[in-house]
Design a protein that fits this description.
about 40% helix, Rhopdopsin 7-helix transmembrane proteins, about 850 residues, five-stranded parallel sheet, Rossmann fold, eight-stranded mixed sheet, alpha/beta
Length: about 850
């Protein structure tokens, strides 16, 4: 049978003990007060630090060794070495490095929960090749020979770091504070873990080094440092603080509310994320302190499971039945605030402990009945040793079968046990597999614990998630958010912990100068760009056939747009075009009906008919711009309008030239008479129109217009349009038409005061003023509009300029023909011409 020997190293006297040579040994140093022993052939030893209390002042009124005997300070190497050597000595005799018998062999050590205790034991026992199981904080052992026989009941540290990082990212807590305990573990956490957090997008508002917790010296300085750190924490805008500590760090955490009252510091609620090394610990004077500070906190803890019979075992413990357990007696007196003297003489003012007090009546802040991660680790360590011993005794080694239970395990054989411990694998009584990896770390995950406190100083460790290092990448963390209870100040809502408000969809982040990268401004996405997610690094461009909605968080398909006969604008322009066509045809009919009258015959009747026909076609050409563009429509749309208008302007130029030549031909001896006639008018019209015809032909031959899509001009529409093809040819043809218009206007302006029977030169001048004004205003208007409205502007310009020519040139003549027919005779023509000559 394997018995478990537990030696709790708690009293750490500072006096230097002396050694005197004695028969078969050395005189004992100051004893280790709190220990528990049960004899057996093979012993599993334990060096466990459990008690914290203030030390008594040294008065030198008594022997220093007796005063220091009750001094309990932070874990020191000296006292850990003492406990280690005592376990390797003959029981009852302190003989370092020597054992008088083969009984009570310590085959393995369970040490913890502090990393220093584990380190000091490893530095001592590696020489003896004795296996050690460390629980709680895993020590940093730089010497590989010292680490060879050390196995960690704490899963690999990188898994815990990954779990904390995934937890922060899961809740989008990217602006945090960090508090760590001064020491090797804390430094390693800052130097190796936090840079990885930064690479994953986590920023730190502060990183504070918490002083080591001492109870015997330097209390004033230590409290001052705590106050300064607490001020940093409460002033921080980060709502989440990662606390990387040791088992006793909760003692420090529970002092915050007291510091807040003593120093008049406004309390500010934080979500604490605690590491698995920590447990709920307290000192005696904290018994009645409020524990609300940990309400809503989250802990990464070593995975544990309730063991059947564990609570029954705990409830059966009492100081009367376990007289050999000195630690239990100390705990009982402190927990139940009663007196349990060693003798009937030693008593104090407190009530005497009956031994019948129930542990389950104590609040959780004093004693927990459930099996914590640390307890579960110790439990698994004991059974790992038992299974390794069983495997060793049932195996064949060096050709000899070890089956005799009477055979004792000698010190020189201890290293053999370690080989079996590294390969041990078993299912514990909770049904969970226990095994170790090649580094000696237990192959287990972590639980995520949510701390829920109650007014009676009890609390609940609620498991709300799991960190499974064996899960696929990206799925190592599982969290049940709905089961988490958040700190009261956050009103049951998951808190945010960011440097500034998040950037909503439609905005992108812009870094603030001289601030960590988690601090940024939110800039709205530029036109045509969107961001779909919160805190977008940049805005993305919508596809060409989509546009950004008003909130700039969704790309919406663009509508197809063109000037249609089905919309009001298209209907209005089409009606105007048809109306002007009808008016032009009516005027043309009037002129044909009165073709033999002087007013019609004046200035070349054929040119007048050509002009009216051109105007009619101009109004018809406007209809080519309405409707969905297609190949034929685009091919003739611009070319037809430019060509027809060029013919119309050529006719106006011919009529103006006729007026000038007619006046000059009336002068005596003028040689201009020979230029008069139909051939001159025909030549002007044909020659001017021919140049435009050549330009348009070249245009259509080289790079003709074609249907096109304009997805850029309009934000929310794709405009179907006719692309002009060659812009040079288009503007050349349009420029030539403008050139003819300017020449016609100039000639008409010069001839406006020449005598004329019906003052046609003046009317032509007015018509060209309207024509040129329309097309000069067309250019800036056309360039300032977009989409189908550009087409509407062009149609309007065609209709307005054509209507100007029709109205200014033909309206006065129609008035005379229809209303004043008495003026439409030859005598009136001669009289007016003669009057004009005399005036000249």
């Amino acid at each position: 049978m394997v018995h478990f020997m537990l030696l709790v190293s708690l009293l750490l006297p500072q006096a230097v003990w002396s050694l005197t040579v004695a028969q078969c040994g050395i005189s004992d140093p100051l004893p280790v007060n709190h220990k528990y022993y049960q004899s057996g052939d093979l012993i599993i030893a334990g060096i466990l630090s459990q008690i914290y209390t203030f030390s008594n002042p040294i008065t030198f009124e008594n022997h220093p060794s007796h005063e220091l005997l009750d001094d309990i300070v932070h874990f020191t190497a000296r006292e850990t070495y003492l406990a280690s050597m005592e376990l390797l000595s003959t029981r009852g005799r302190f003989i370092p490095n020597y054992k008088c018998d083969v009984h009570d062999n310590a085959v393995a050590f369970i040490v913890g929960p502090n990393s220093n205790v584990c380190l000091f034991v490893a530095m001592t026992l590696y020489i003896y090749k004795i296996s050690q199981f460390g629980y709680g904080s895993a020590p940093i052992i730089n010497d590989q020979t010292q680490e060879a026989f050390f196995q960690r009941m704490f899963p690999a540290e990188e898994h815990q770091a990954a779990g904390i990082l995934q937890l922060l990212l899961f809740f989008r807590w990217i602006w945090i504070g960090v508090v760590f305990i001064n020491g090797d573990n804390g430094e390693r956490f800052v130097q190796t873990v936090l840079p990885g957090f930064s690479k994953s997008g986590i920023c730190f508002d502060f990183i504070e080094n918490l002083p080591t917790l001492y109870f015997s010296t330097g209390m004033e300085e230590m409290v001052t440092e705590w106050v300064n750190i607490y001020k940093v924490i409460v002033r921080s805008t980060a709502n989440v603080v990662v606390l990387h500590g040791e088992i006793n760090t909760v003692v420090f955490l529970r002092m915050f509310p007291q510091l807040s009252e003593l120093e008049d510091i406004t309390m500010k609620t934080k979500v604490w994320i605690m590491t698995a090394q920590m447990e709920f610990t307290s000192v005696s004077f904290q018994r009645d302190w409020d524990i609300d500070i940990v309400h809503g906190a989250l802990s990464i803890t070593v995975h544990s499971k309730e063991i059947v019979g564990f609570q029954k075992f705990i409830q059966g413990r009492n100081p009367t039945s376990e007289k050999e357990d000195a630690f239990l007696r100390v705990f009982w007196k402190t927990a139940f605030d009663c007196s349990l003297p060693k003798t009937d003489i030693e008593r104090d003012d407190r009530d005497t402990c009956s031994g019948e007090e129930k542990l389950d009546t104590l609040p959780g802040s004093v004693f927990e009945m459930s099996m914590t991660g640390h307890s579960y680790s110790v439990y698994n360590a004991v059974f790992a040793v038992a299974h390794a011993l069983q495997a060793m005794h049932s195996s064949r080694y060096k050709g000899r079968v070890i089956v005799d239970e009477g055979v004792k395990l000698q010190n020189q054989e201890l290293w053999k046990l370690h080989c079996y411990l590294r390969r041990v694998s078993f299912n514990n009584s909770a049904g969970e597999k226990v095994s170790f990896n090649h580094n000696g770390d237990i192959t287990a995950g972590f639980d995520i614990i949510n701390w829920v406190t109650f007014p009676n100083h009890s609390f609940l460790r609620a498991k709300v998630g799991r960190v499974d290092p064996l899960a696929p990448e990206g799925k190592i963390l599982s969290v049940s958010v709905e089961d988490i209870v958040w700190p009261t100040a956050f009103k049951k809502v998951q808190p945010l912990s960011v440097c500034n408000d998040i950037c909503h969809p439609g905005y992108s982040k812009s870094k603030k100068e001289e601030k960590p990268f988690c601090c940024y401004d939110c800039l709205p996405c530029p036109e045509g760009r969107i961001s779909k997610f919160r805190d977008a690094e940049y805005c993305i461009q919508c596809p060409e056939d989509h546009y950004a909605n008003k909130e700039q968080d969704v790309c919406v398909p663009k509508k197809i747009s063109f000037l249609s006969y089905r919309e009001p604008l298209g209907v209005i322009l089409a009606n105007f075009s048809l109306s002007f066509c009808f008016i032009t045809a009516l005027v043309h009919g009037i002129f044909i009906k009165h073709k033999d009258t002087p007013i019609v015959k004046a200035n070349n009747r054929n040119v007048t008919y050509t002009l009216l026909t051109s105007l009619l076609l101009c109004f018809v050409s406007a209809l080519l711009f309405i409707g969905q563009p297609h190949k034929v429509r685009c091919l003739f749309q611009q070319a037809a309008f430019i060509m027809i208008f060029s013919v119309a302007v050529s006719c106006v130029l011919a009529k103006t030239t006729t007026v000038i030549l007619a006046f000059m031909a009336t002068k005596p001896g003028s040689s201009m008479r020979r230029w008069m006639g139909k051939r001159l008018d025909f030549s002007v019209v044909v020659s001017c129109s021919l140049v435009q015809a050549i330009l348009c032909t070249l245009w259509l031959a080289i790079s003709p217009p074609f249907p096109d899509l304009d997805a850029h001009t309009m934000a929310e529409e794709i405009v179907l349009e006719c692309n002009e093809g060659s812009a040079i040819m288009f503007y050349s043809a349009l420029g030539y038409m403008g050139f003819l218009a300017i020449i016609s206007f100039t000639v008409a302006f010069l001839a406006r005061k020449l005598p004329d029977s019906f003052n046609e030169a003046k009317f032509i001048t007015f018509s060209m003023v309207v024509f040129c004004s329309v097309w000069l205003s067309f250019v800036p208007t056309y360039l300032s509009t977009k989409g189908k409205y550009m087409v509407a502007v062009e149609i309007f310009s065609i209709l307005a300029s054509g209507a100007g020519l029709l109205g200014c040139i033909f309206a006065p003549k129609c008035y005379i023909i229809l209303v004043k027919p008495e003026l439409n005779n030859r005598e009136q023509l001669v009289r007016r011409n003669n009057s004009g000559i005399r005036n000249q």
